[in-house]
Amino acid sequence: MEQNPELQKLLKLKEALKSDYEKKTGKKIEPKEEKKNRIQLSEELKKRIVSDVNLPLHLDEIRTPLDIEKSCMEVQDQRLFDFVEKNTDQVRDQVLSENLENIMLMLKGRSQEAVKNLESLYMKGKNDFVYFNLLLAGLLSGEEIEKGIAGFLAEQSRSAYPFLLMLFYSLFRYKSFQIVKKTVPLLLKTDPNELHALFFQMLQIDDKEIAKFSSILYRKNEYKEFQNIVKLLPFFVNKDGTNYQYTLDALVKKDTHRCSRVYYEYVSQEKGLEPEETAKCPLGLYILGRKALQNNDIERAQNCASRLVAFNDPYGQLLTAALKFGSGKNSESMRLLHELLLPFERVIVTWLSGQHVAYKGVGVLLKPLKKNTIVFPVPADFEQFQGIMNESLTVWDDFEVFFYPYEEFRCFFGSRLCTLAYKEKK
């Protein structure tokens, strides 16, 4: 590198003055050492301080795993477990302390242990949040809890927890989306707040109201990752390109939040996670099945569909309908599709054109020349439904169905509970 002549002159002058001073005084000028920090912290204390700074979690306010997801959705499991272990002395109340201990057991995959402990804990005070955790732990350990939920509703009719548990059960032990549609208004009536109002507006697919309640939660610093997920498709269907792109960009930046990364790939068809990571949740299996159809890997698509059907997951039936389309069984595919969509009453559909594709219904056509996204009211009459679909397919080459807000509600409960809910069914 070329040296600055003026700078060199100054450096030489400095050295000359230094040498002259040392000759006259007999004192040698030593280079200045960096000041050392006088306060020495133990490694344990350093970790404690970092943990306290980075996790906005008040342990004495935790009643259920949902309170953890409120502010720590993207926190990795081990970091969460370490934080709770180091700070558990914050919780002075004995019931809350034992309750937290069993939530951690549940999240560590030790649900059967948690069930035994929570049964005795519930008898001490009949707390609604303890019973919520007891039934949730039972579900995660493979128990059938439908009767337990009915008893919970009867015993704690003024509490929101039975309705939250019913919502979880109806999503993760899926039978019909009608149960979700009936549960959310009751939840809002029992406990009217911004979060439950957002749930209700999600059922209406009202982008402005969804954005309004999401903004309120954002200002309260609650459920930030969930907010991005619930807003994306309503922006898309209402042609709000600016907010859609802004929200999509926010999703892809969530490196440590599995739901955000998987959902990003679901909507954009751009890579969100490595395939082995994507396969750890039902929506990820659907994405892999869709990709298999795009690559004409029918065996792999059938495998993904079969695994999802075993979960009783609606995406399994959607893949199955696409496979039937591809094998020329259009009438069978239409009937299966109608049975699948009818409980939703309305779904989001993107119509695509550009070139012929065999497997329809899951968005196999990449880079379409033209597309149109709509809210599609599902006719109760099959003949009417089939007529609308057949007529549309004379204009469009492909379509993709989005079960909004089914997947979005699942994301509210977080990847920790989602992974555990399906682990027992594999």
Description:
The protein is mainly α and 426 residues long. Among the domains are: 57-159; 268-410, no CATH class. It is 64% helix and 5% strand. Strands 2-1-3 form a 3-stranded antiparallel sheet, covered by helices on one side. The longest helix has 21 residues, at 5-25. The chain is globular, with a radius of gyration of 28 Å. The termini are far apart.
Question: Tags for this entry?
Answer:
426 residues, mainly alpha, 3-stranded antiparallel beta sheet
Question: What is the gist of this entry?
Answer:
With 426 residues, the chain is mostly helical. The chain has helices spanning 5-25, 43-54, 65-72, 77-87, 94-107, 111-125, 128-140, 146-155, 161-172, 177-190, 194-204, 207-219, 224-237, 241-252, 258-268, 275-278, 282-294, 298-310, 314-326, 330-341, 382-392, 406-412, 414-423; strands at residues 346-353, 370-377, 398-402.
Strand content: under 5%
**Spans where pLDDT lies below 50 across 5 or more residues:** 33-39, 49-53
- Helix share, percent: 55-70%
| Mean pLDDT across residues | 90
Note the gap between the termini.
63 Å
What is the overall number of helices? 23
Shape: globular
The string of secondary-structure elements, in order, is HHHHHHHHHHHHHHHHHHHHEEHEHH
Q: Give the biggest beta sheet.
A: 3 strands, antiparallel
The strand order across the widest sheet is 2-1-3
Number of strands: 3
Rg result: 28 Å
Q: Which structural category fits the helices and strands?
A: mainly alpha
